Amino acid sequence: MKRHSQSYTINDSAHLKKQLLHWAQQFREVVFLDSNNYQDRYGSYEAVLAVDAFTSLQTDDQKAFLELQSYQQETNDWLFGYLSYDLKNSIEPIDSQNIDGLNFPDLFFFQPKKIIILAQETLRFEYLGICEEEIADDFHTISTLNETKFKQFSALNIQDRVSFKEYVKGFDQMKCHIQRGDIYEANYCMEFYADQATIDPLETYWKLNSISEPPFACFGKFNQQYVLCASPERYLKKQGTKIISQPIKGTSKRGANLEEDLLLKKQLRENPKEQSENVMIVDLVRNDLSKTAIKASVKVEELFGIYTFKQVHQMISTVVSEVAENQNPVNIIQSTFPMGSMTGAPKLSAMKIIEEVEQSKRGLYSGAIGYFTPDNDFDFNVVIRSILYNQKNNYLSFSVGSAITINANAEDEYNECLLKAQAMKKVLTHAD
User: Fold this and answer.
1) What does the DSSP 8-state code read for residue 195?
2) Which residue in 249, 347, 352, 361 is the catalytic one?
3) From the candidates 67, 233, 358, 413, which is the catalytic residue?
4) Which of 80, 343, 388, 392 has minimal Cβ neighbours within 10 Å of its Cβ?
């Protein structure tokens, strides 16, 4: 179905983003992607809002990727949605029997009736023909909305799924597998959760986003299930025939002053352990991209790049490849999923061990959220630094993790996890 486009010039993009997302709450399906003005050489838009499903695909089936491929080809339109980590079970002979309080579907995509794109002080409306006459009224409604007033909710009692003692036990299991040569590296994660949790998802998202201001932020609403995502990491982007992956491995806290901050950044850049973790995942990503790449086109554009965010410094590498023009976009994703930064090396062995050691089913955590375009391009983040919320059963969860290698020690890795959990805990417990 044809889309109709109308553009408007705007002045205050920060305020407009709040108006857009407040307006969007009337719809059952919402995906809002925000770059927070990050200077991303591969970025396409400042922000994108997609709402109101015309069609949708929701599945837990073992043939989920095949269903997504058919859906993407049949619609030949914009699709927004997510891929949960546990889609791995449809790719490899792995299953998860771990605790799952969230109960999100493994895959959810929808073809939105209404898409609104913010780029270079221009707001562009891309509406399906069935609602094109609503563009002018919607723009007027959005641009005249007042500031959102949020309800006051009590601070949540956040619980640890595993104690430090239990974490060390799992860590030691990981190290034994590394020492035996089963794996070289694995991403070991733990869950924090709250039962009987009542939050305002929109307020919680804005607070989380303001703390971190990451380049791959997302507010997702899928019926009564929400993802409030402050991710700094791109999983995979297709831009014409170019594929881009930007795995993160290596984290350091920010300094109390400029001198300390520069020192911590330098120490991260030169840390042999962090470099070792990063290069293992870079090699894994190179191997994944080679499955669909034109011969000899896989390249590492940047190795060990150090990028600074509001809360942490991160070590990020960029791996690219070229694919044939007729290469199916869903196949490209399936051949690289789940992302190397959230699994380990070798990937299959790492995923099997992760299932044995971790106590929670990951679900959407360490999955991906993003979109397909009508031109068969796509862009997906990694769902980390994120709060997941099932409003129907009042269960809330966030997970954090770190890479375990032969040189890792349990206390340092546990503390890295706590550092990554700080922003989520702060907004949920109303900490100053």
Assistant:
1) S
2) 249
3) 233
4) 392
Structure tokens at 77: 């339109």
pLDDT tens digits for range 310-323? 888 999 999 999 99
Q: First-to-last CA distance in the chain? A: 49
Judged against a pLDDT cut of 80, whether residue 147 lies above it is answered with no
CA separation, residue 15 to residues 37, 50, 145, 190 (Å): 13, 18, 10, 36
Q: What is the pLDDT of residues 191-235, one digit of tens each?
A: 999 999 999 999 999 999 999 899 999 999 999 999 999 999 999
Confidence label for 432 from pLDDT (cuts 50, 70 and 90): low
Q: Which of 61, 166, 66, 91 is nearest to 351 (CA)?
A: 91
Is the distance from CB of 87 to CB of 367 less than 8 angstroms? yes
In the residue annotation, 169 being an active-site residue is answered as no
Which of 72, 83, 80 minimizes the C-alpha distance to 113? 80
Report the C-alpha gap between 31 and 16 in whole angstroms: 16
246-300: per-residue pLDDT in tens? 999 998 999 999 999 999 999 999 999 899 989 999 999 999 999 999 999 999 9
Strands annotated E in 216-274: 216-222, 225-231, 234-239, 242-246, 248-253
Would you list the DSSP string of 19-74? HHHHHHTTSSEEEEEE-TT---TT---SEEEEEEEEEEEEE--TTHHHHHHHHHHH
Helix (H) or strand (E) holding 357: helix 347-357
Tokens of 261: 């901050």
Active site residue 325: no
